[in-house]
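User: Continuing from earlier, I have the next pair ready.

Assistant: Great, send them over.

User: Here they are, in order.

Assistant: Folding the first of the pair now:
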Amino acid sequence: MIRLHTSVFYVLLACLLFVSCKKEEPEEYPKREKIDFTFIAYIIAENSLTGNAAPNINDIESGIEQMKSDINVLVFVDDKKSAPCLIEMQRNADGSVTRKTVREWEETNVVDADFMADVLKYINEQYPSKSYGLDLWSHGMAWIPSNNPLKKSKSTKWFGEDNGEIMDIKELNRALSSSGIHFDFILFDACLMASVEVAYEIRNNADYIIASPIEVWEMGYPYVEMMKAMEYEDRHLRIAKAYSDFYNGEFNSSYGIKMTGAISVIDCNRLEHLATETKLLLVENEENDIKDIRNGIIRYDRWNYHFLYDLGHYMNELVGKENTYDWFDVYNKTMIYSYSTPTFGDSWGGYLDLDPENYTGLGTYIPQQGYSVWNEYYKTLQWFTDTDYLPIY
């Protein structure tokens, strides 16, 4: 995620609560009994977010202490202070939580698709469960390719930066598809990941995707409340509600910012229907004389180069509101939860206007002639393949 600097207080807190993995040889454990639900946090923090990992992990522990039922909780973490390791958080009879390092790896590229798949396979084998939830925690930049020509820019991150190495969504999809797990939900604690291209690429790996179409502040998700949401079958919706309650638009003196934000929940099982309806709508209106419409559409990124716009607003402007009624019927069944504050940002990075009249909660790319490398990569994504549409403005 491209998380933003908040208060000095929070930075000092993060330094005091750094993550430490116990140095030990991996132990052989008997296979656990099958449990109803397993939550996996895959924290890639060997980057500028390294100080934010420990506070989130501590909040996960605090949330477990407040739960009334037991679930498996596994935290894979790689930060600047220790080697990659897998931590099991076990709730004791008295409500306290014990952390145990169950496996440690030598320093490696944890955004490598094969490595990520192996970690998830190990968890699947050692912690059998009726269902799984996955939290992908790091920097994020939606669908942008890992060989992006703007790679050297300090503000560009894709998904999962590990000491300069990055992962694009096609590689992420390969890792998830190879894991052997179909997830109840995949949550992105990372910026800009609620884009239709991302969701469509990984749709076969989960029932729901929980993500923000805009940036996520550096404190991330409200993990204490989020963990308590894990006890319910509609946990994907309760997690999103906890996020919206946390980023409620009010000023927070602890963090020194106005708590602005956005969150979306996407039903992966409906994404192919959305692609079909999108293609049909575009074919029916392919002769529309649409010139440069980008400037009037809600934008989700805050850079000089733009790659994420509001999908619903774009479709309305592209083909006309009178032609999108049936399309929005499908869209609204796909986007089962959408929340945003009217604006997002600060004086340091600038502000986004998330116009409530046109905001729909899912990002998309509007191709431009100047982004030829991006355009060629975009043609390799599954969303483009199934909608077959790439107007260049």
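And the other member of the pair:
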Amino acid sequence: MYNLPQKLVAEFIGAFTLVFIGAGSICTDQYLTSTGQSGLGLLGVAIASGLAFGVMVMALGHISGGHFNPAITIGLWVTRRLSTRHSVSYWIAQLLGATTAAYVIKVAIPDTTWTAKALGSITPDLGGDFTRAHGIALEAVLTFFLVFVFFATAADTKGAFSKIAGFAIGLTITMDTLFGGPFTGAAMNPARAFGPALATSHWQNHGVYWAGPLLGGVIAGVLYDRTFLRDQPPA
């Protein structure tokens, strides 16, 4: 059994990886296109984000549960499968990991590759004619899928945590990003939005990335718990 500090280190590393690779792949795409090369495109960014989450769940899930996302943590908290103390601690570790990753990207990528627009692009924001209400609704639905799959493969003792949980969760991130990426950035994770926002001072529409994912996480957690986990005690 791992203690709380060990779990928090795992959550920090997982959240760090998600932002470093997810936001970093956007930087790579912009760098390639700005130099006349073929960029990663939406598919490449989606795959990178999905792989990052999936790999970290497989590597660290047995230590902390592999949340790396306040929306997943709140789903487990509201269903009483995680204590308030652990939930708050997880949130802090996740936000710190995401923030550290954003600042490392900012320091590691040469300034000459950045523009004001590029700097803000690692921070999720609404695209086109999307309103905040649209953004909250889409982020809620996308996060619902993510947290629902997490519960089905990781929280459910009859699920496949030890076998394919990371694969399934990573694929969910990928499919969500392919749809939602152009509209909201498909954050599905308040930490994914908070870290880059702090590093780049890009706070426009930031509330969308707390309201939507947390709402989706609560709905998914409660629905799965009350529908499929009635006879299973908290882990």
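Worth noting for the second one:
The two ends are 12 Å apart (CA to CA). The chain has one domain: 4-228.
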